[in-house]
Each structure stands twice: as C-alpha cells, then as structure tokens.
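can u pls check wat happens w/ 4'-deoxy-4'-aminopyridoxal-5'-phosphate
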Amino acid sequence: MKKDLKKLFPIFANNPGLVYLDSAATAQKPQSVIDAELNFYARDYSNIHRGLYPLTKRTNLAYQGAREKVAKFIGAQWGEVIFTSGATMGLNLLAHSLDFKKGDEVIISEAEHHANIVPWQQTPATLRIMPVASDGEVDLKWLAKNITKKTRLVSFAAQSNVFGKVVDIAGVVKIAHKAGALVALDATQLVCHTRIDVKKLGVDFIAFSAHKLYGPTGIGALYMPAKLRDKLRPFLTGGDMIRTVSFEKTEFAFGPQRFEAGTPPIAQAIAFGAAVDFASSIDIDKTGLTKYARKKLAAVPGIKFISPETANGLVAFIIDGVSNFDIAVKVGAKGVCMRAGLHCAEPIHAKLGLDKNGGTLRMSFGAYNDKADVDIAVAAIKQALKELR
Ligand code: PMP
C-alpha cells in the first residue's frame, strides 16, 4: 500500500482542511526534519570547529555528516558542497567570487528567477539574454550563435518556477564548455522533482535551497568542484575560513570552509541532512499529478495555461476576465493555498505580456499532495469564478 505521506507532515493535522499547493514557493516539513533540528538543540548543541570536548565533536560529526548527505543526494563529493543560506546566496557568492571584469559576459535565460538576474547585474560583466520558447525551453541555436570568447559564465534555471519544464541542460553545457565558459545551474526547482547526478550533468556550479526540498529555511547548497573552489575568492571573510591570520596577511582555507565564514546555521544544516534523507526515501517525480491537475483545470471556463504539458511539479495559468489575486484570495479563504503574481520572475511575465495584470496563478506540488487536493482546489476556483463574474 502507498504510504500516506500527508500524515508525516504535522502542518496538516494542525490545520484541518488545509490544501497546500504552493510548494514551489516553499515546502512543508516532515516530522523527521523538525525532530532533527529540535533534537540537535535539545541533545547535542554546541559550536563546530572550536571545542575539544565530546559534545562539540558530536556537533562536528553531525554538521559534516549533513554535508555528506547533501553531497550524496546530488552525486557530489563531500568537499564539493558549500553550505549557503539558500539559492540566492549561492548565486550571489558566484557573482562575487568569479571576479568578473569589464568586457566579460554572462549569459542567462529569459525565464530566470530574480535570484539569477540581479546578482550578475551587480558585476562589471555584460549580461546577455538567451531567449526561451513558449514552453520555457532554452534556445540552443541562439546560444551557439551568440556565445563568444568573452562569455565567462552561462547561468540558467534547470527548471523555471513559471514553466516547470526541465530544459536541455546537456545542450547548454556542451555549447558553453566548447566556448570555454563555465556553467552554473539554478537547480532550486529541479532537485525537488528530479534525481540529479552532478557528474553526469557536467555543470560547474549548482545552487539550490533546502526549504523547497522539505528542509529548513536559512540553508542551501552550492556545489563546486574542488579545483574551482580552492581558487575562487571567498565571498564572506572572518573566522573559520582561514589558515593563518596576521595583521599583515591572511591565508584562506581550502575546502568548503573557505566559503563558510563565521558560525554557520548548524542546526539548519543538520535538518537539511534529514530533509535529503526524506527526499531520497520517496518518489519526488510529480509529472503524474501535474498532468492530472492540468486535465481537471482544463474544465475551468476561460483558462489559459502558461506552463507546458511537460511540466513537472507545477501548473501556471491565467483565467480570462478575472484578477489572479482575487482568485487566490477567495480560494485561500477556503484553505486552498495557491500563488498569484510574478513569482519573482518579472522579465518573463513581461515578455508574455502578463506583468501588468497580476502575472499568473500557480498551483505547485509537494510529496504530500494527491488528486483529492487538486479536486478541492479546482472546485474552489470554479466557485470563486461564479462569485467574481
Ligand atoms: N531560483 C528559482 C528557480 C526559484 O524558484 C527560487 C525560489 N522561488 C529561487 C531561485 C530563489 O530561492 P531562495 O529564495 O530560496 O534563495
């Protein structure tokens, strides 16, 4: 028999009738993740790296053990995973540490989250924009034609939080590497629904957040291979990221701690480990439920889908003649949590001509969602339409 995954998430027992369809924004937490953080504070809490007593040794083991779990989850080595505060910090770290100079180019796609746009704008590099098709697929022909010797990095969402389709990662990697550019993958949505192996993907950097993957807020991972990691300029500096310090000169540490200055979010890292344990134990693929939702939603009068049929984990749409916000508020009052707006991806909504009228409505799925949730949400949308039209 299939496990009732909802029972593993206390939010549902504490909020009877809750239909949570906003996992692309953030996922709910299973008891095992909550327990991991709570038990660490209650039983094992101390700081890492500093003490010589048994308690701190336990903390060290748990913190580095969490790194090992996250590394294994994406097919990386222990030392190739840097703990960040989330995808946003991972991309900001790269924007700083890659030391861009005037004349360098960074290519991103048209369908990026602001976290993969704004950090590059803060560098001296020129930003160039790779178009996407109406289903969110990246335009490889454009890339092959427009990439130059000046392009130092191609950074793109493996799966956009608006289209939900996994793009041709291998195609981008091939063209970028041939031109001598590095490749960064914003895998924030991808890792929630697809098992990945960084070595097979062949990318140079991967950024994602724990909180969309059933883990805590305030923690995420940035993958980078050791040969790049130990050469890059640290983002934050201070304690724990050094080999030696004098007033004249500081030598930075090698290894992931090079990028983990100060006391890190230890409890969150440990709970992140529990989250990847959880994600590894279930079927994270949501294409079946996504197709079901699309089929059910197709019966809503005036609906227009923005995400393609090949999406995994979300359906984005608009409904003729009504405001997305009005719908989201009305269904929200009935316990159906859905998102309306630009989803931190204003440029792609502008391209689609959807930036002025409340963007899109988005239903997104996590481990706990089932067909019954979709049925309730679709009924609530139809009822809201009756009241609004
Ligand atoms: N990239 C994508 C594709 C996302 O969906 C998100 C979160 N919506 C981010 C980056 C940023 O993640 P965070 O806010 O956790 O740093």
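The mean pLDDT is 96.
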